[in-house]
Design brief:
By secondary structure, this protein is α+β, with helices and mostly antiparallel strands. The protein has two helices and eight strands; from the N terminus they run H-E-E-E-E-H-E-E-E-E.
């Protein structure tokens, strides 16, 4: 049986602290998913309206477009080291550089928190404690996109593409006050950012579209402003 002296800080308090962290993370993810669902419903409603709507005529050029979106990642690709779901925010601006091909400077942003227990030492000179590790990452770089509309004979409202992103990640990490253990206990991300994408855009008008981008690490729903 574990005595009170062996664990000066009650274990239930430590479990409570960890649960609060997980609950806050879950609320954040549910809020993000709710936003994605609302956008998806909005998107589907426009598809339904489009059945009898007039076709949108586009110029066939894919550049000069601002893309913004929010997605969910954390289990695969570049983001796999996190190990749990988290929101990932994205923004880029496309420039036409060749027929059916664009380049876009981009910026992603994500942040997450992990918890760490340090149990009391055998001689009790170090008490049992709970610490948090917080990391914020800002990958920036360039995204090259090739559009397959003509190959797929897509209608004027649809764009389909494959893309690749490369860049550098700006990383800011910190432990909670009082932690003096192994600063590398949680694996941090690679400063070199690499990602591969497939995606589509549905044009609601000549100036606004809804996008779905699925990459090796995150699925993103967003808006395209032409």
């Amino acid at each position: 049986m574990i005595s009170r002296e062996e664990y000066p800080l009650p274990l239930w308090i430590l479990l409570y602290q960890q649960n609060i962290t997980h609950i806050l993370q879950t609320i954040l993810i549910l809020t993000t998913m709710k936003t994605l669902i609302i956008i998806s419903i909005f998107f589907l409603s426009f598809i339904q309206i489009d059945v009898n709507a007039q076709e949108v005529t586009t110029s066939g050029k894919f550049g000069q477009t601002l893309n913004v979106g929010v997605g969910v990642g954390g289990y695969s690709g570049y983001y796999s080291y996190v190990g749990h779901a988290m929101p990932v925010y994205h923004m880029d601006y496309e420039y036409t550089v060749a027929k059916n091909f664009t380049l876009a400077p981009f910026a992603n942003l994500y942040t997450y928190t992990n918890g760490y227990y340090r149990f009391a030492s055998c001689n009790h000179d170090i008490p049992q404690q709970y610490f948090t590790y917080h990391e914020t990452v800002l990958p920036v770089g360039a995204k090259g996109t090739f559009y397959f509309d003509k190959l797929l004979r897509a209608g004027s409202r649809w764009d389909f593409y494959a893309a690749a992103s490369v860049g550098l990640a700006i990383i800011h990490s910190k432990w909670s006050t009082g932690y003096d253990g192994d600063m590398g206990y949680f694996h941090s991300t690679n400063p070199l950012f690499l990602d591969a994408h497939i995606g589509t855009e549905y044009h609601m008008s000549k100036t606004l579209g809804i996008t779905l981008d699925i990459s090796s690490g995150v699925a993103t729903i967003g808006l395209a402003i032409h």
